[in-house]
Amino acid sequence: MLIAILSGVLIGVGGTQVGIVLIAGCLLVASFFISVQLTFWALLVATFVLVGPVQYFGRIGKIFWLPYLLGLLLFARAAISMFFAPKLSRSGGGKLSPVEAPLILFAVILVASTVLNLSPLLQVLLAAKEYFFLWGAWFVVMGGIVTVRSLDRLWGWMPWFLLLQLPAVLYQRFVIATGRQGAASWDAVVGLFGGDPDGGGASGAMAMCSVIAIAFAITHWRRQLVSGWMVLLTGGLGLATIMLAEVKVAIVLIPLAIFLIYGAELAQRPVRSLTMLFVGLLASLAVVYVYQTQFTTTATKAGRSLDAYIVDVIEKNSQVDYVDPITMQMGRVGALTFWWKEQHIEDPLQFIVGSGIGASRMGQVKGEVAQRYGFDIERSSAAILLWDSGVLGLLVLGAAMLAGALAAFRLARQSEAAEEAAILQAIGIGLTIVLLTFPYGPDFIRVPQFQLFAILMLVRVAVAARTRARSKTCAAGASAVSGPRRGLP
């Protein structure tokens, strides 16, 4: 009781900064008494099942801090475990995987940019959670505290997650969205990914994760690890989710995912590959048709035909100077071109490494750069990264995603275990989607569900790459010890 009173007094006197420090201290103390594995699964349940519905239906906005605080707790436990058991930090061998080097460089760029720009402390503290906290999950897996086998169980739960999410999607689409007015009413369909029923939410992240879930089902099915019924269930649930929320990027991502699975087999199995590619195109066209039927009227240009709808989508997303008068949000292309126009040759620092962590941040506490403008400049992850970490930060983080995707595809081809090959191939597709959607929306930076999903895919690739490198080293060492075989005299 006395501690609670003292904490309240300190927060009242010191404000938000003191409150954040006290919370971090409490988490650090709690980390000594909570199992790391339990905390890891609590992070997954809180992020993917609890936070979104509480934020959306309960209208408790601050609940979104929970995943970040649990991630910070994992950070503390990983640090403690690796300090007392250093061998854990060498999981999978000593050589860095292709993913790790660019991620380390990205963290260095962020810190350097923040220090060089002397960014305000409160801005940095509030925005740091979106750049660092959830990576606690990375360290407990890389450290071997949470096993890869435990992580792989997660991928098999995705169809059931889509099934659990469907009632929320149906309610949001046919009750909440239909009761709203305006062209953006369909933004209320976010599933379990959180948002504001009167505004918008993470519908893009919901759709992208649905496409990745479908990819996981197909890669397992083609290796006879799941039945055709499971693929139909996952595909049906994923497509239903996508169709009920107008997320136009899914129109491109669906056939892309199918191509990344079957494109390499065109020469060996042309009939099956072409059939699956055709199915992917049909699914994409079905999404376009449903969108045009649901979300347009014949009185508008987009409602006249499928061609007109597609042209309208392209025109709206390619406008350079457009700012939504209701949300004060820039267009996707406009957000990037605006950043370019605001760069000055006499200040190359901002261009190269940005203005520091949280510079583009919107909300109650705006970042230094965001305060200059009367509209939302954080339209996409690419735009946020350009403002906060410069062109160097964007390129390095993009390189990490690309390296992860390429490594996943390569390791999938080399793996002799069918389940691991299926997981890694699907992860390669997932990381490709994450990279391609950097210019689409702020999901990787601002949506904890999507960021955590990407982190788990990256760490799975990193562990597989280290394990593969260690196996090669052991094989080479054994060959050197045994020496060349000699015939009998």
Describe it.
With 489 residues, the protein is mostly helical. The chain has 20 helices and no strands. It has one domain. The chain has helices at 2-14, 16-30, 36-57, 65-84, 100-116, 121-131, 136-142, 148-156, 158-176, 203-221, 228-244, 250-262, 270-295, 306-317, 332-341, 348-353, 381-414, 418-436, 443-446, 448-482. Helix 7 packs parallel to helix 20. The longest helix is centred in the last third of the chain and has 35 residues, at 448-482. The termini are far apart. 44% of the residues are buried.
What's a concise summary of this model?
This protein has 489 residues and is mainly α. It is built from 20 helices and no strands. 44% of the residues are buried.
DSSP summary: helix tally: 20
General shape: globular
In what range is the share of β-strand residues? under 5%
The major β-sheet equals:
none
Helix content: 55-70%
Residue stretches low in confidence (pLDDT < 50, at least 5 long) are: 485-489
What's the β-strand tally?
A: 0
Mean pLDDT: 84
Supply the helix-strand structural class: mainly alpha
Helix-strand string: HHHHHHHHHHHHHHHHHHHH
> What is the count of distinct domains?
1
Report how far apart the termini are: 87 Å
What is the quaternary state of this protein?
A: single chain
Q: Give me the Rg, rounded.
A: 24 Å
Q: Could you name the key traits of this structure?
A:
489 residues, mainly alpha, 20 helices, 67% helix
Task: Give me the secondary-structure topology.
Blueprint: H1 2-14, H2 16-30, H3 36-57, H4 65-84, H5 100-116, H6 121-131, H7 136-142, H8 148-156, H9 158-176, H10 203-221, H11 228-244, H12 250-262, H13 270-295, H14 306-317, H15 332-341, H16 348-353, H17 381-414, H18 418-436, H19 443-446, H20 448-482
Helix pairs in contact: 1-2, 2-4, 3-4, 4-7, 5-17, 7-20, 9-11, 10-11, 10-12, 10-18, 11-13, 12-13, 12-18, 17-18, 17-20, 18-20
